[in-house]
Structure formats: C-alpha cells, structure tokens
Amino acid sequence: MSDTAAWIDLYDDDTGPLVVGRAGTQVNHDTAPHSHRRGQLIGCGRGVLSVGADTGHWVIPARHAIWLPPARPHSSRMHGPFTGWSLYVAGPACQSLPDSPCTVAVSPLLWEAALRCAERANALPDPVQDRLAGVILDELRSMVPRPLGLPMPSDARL
Question: pLDDT for 74-84, tens place per residue?
C-alpha cells in the first residue's frame, strides 16, 4: 500500500495518529452535510468560511478556526477565494476539548504547527508527527471560544 493510500482514511479513523492535517485552496466551494469520527478544527488563512451544524451557524474570518467535536454533522461554504487547513483529532484526544462547536482565535504557535501538520499530510506517522501532535493538542486545550456564531432556535414555534 502506498503512503498516500494509507493516509486517505486517517482523518476518519481513530486507530491512526492523534492529529492529521491537510490544507487547500478553494473558490466559492460548498460541502454537503457530513461528519467525521475525529474532531475537526478548520482554520481560515484567507477569505471567509461559514459552517453550519445542528446547534448553530458560524462565520470564521481569517486567522480564526472552528472546532467541531467528533461525529458532529456539519456543512461549510467558502465565500470567494479561500485558503485554509483542517486538523483531524482522534476521538480519545477530544475528551478534554469542547463538546460543542465553537469559533476560536488561533495562536501563532497553533497556526504554524497546523501548517506543518498539513505539509506532512501524505507522510505515514512517525516520532516527529507524534511530537507535533502533542504541541497541537496542548494549544487546542488552551483555545478560548469567540462569539462568532448564531445559535439555531430550539423552540418548536420557531
């Protein structure tokens, strides 16, 4: 099996590394509702991203990210040119992270670690990736939610 084939499903498989990253650029791209076994942190480098889930809708500006706990159905829309990254965190490591979606400002250390993790997206896990995952998890645990979301109404009359 090639390195790439081994990596493809890691973002939806808890038996792999603690954190898997990927980066990309899109223009006016929408994703249909879906979920992952892993928690997901989506970082916005350039442009604007909006993410919808059952409990709300969030707008993520540049240098911010949205945290989505494992198995949380969500959809997204990239408004215009967008550059960003996603980190997929294994389920057991998510226990100390927020249990509901939230928007966060990304520290410079987390930003650079996420980019490095995304650069290694096609590499099989190794000690370097394990150490990087530890730094990323430390930074994720210190995230401070920002009020950039709109809650979905829960009253049946609405």
Answer: 999 988 888 89
